[in-house]
Amino acid sequence: MDSHEIQITGKAPIDGKLDDTKDYSIAYKRLGVRSIVRTPLEENGDYKYTYKLENLADLTAIGEDRIIQGKNKSNSKRLRNRCWIYSNDLGLEPEDFYDKFTASLIDKFESVVDFLNIK
Q1: CA angle, corner 103, sides to 10 and 53, nearest 5?
Q2: Segments making up each domain of the chain, as ranges
């Protein structure tokens, strides 16, 4: 029988220290599958699938005595995450969409600045 597991990578800055003597529950808002590793278990055709996930948004660490928020503060990561969500909702390939979106944004930079009125 095939087995399935996840491996989460990436970092998110948090707004406080964690106590290494306590356990925490982590709530992710969005994770993206970055790769899938298929490893044969036995010669009978069964495999172990490891889904490597990356944190794409903010997270919450829930401890015994407090809640710690993790904010993904990089605007470039936030833009990539938003493009990822949008492209997935439309059934598009996320990296292709991100590349096309940022290229178009750069080409029309002055128009976007004028439209947003952020001078």
Answers
A1: 20
A2: 1-72, 74-119
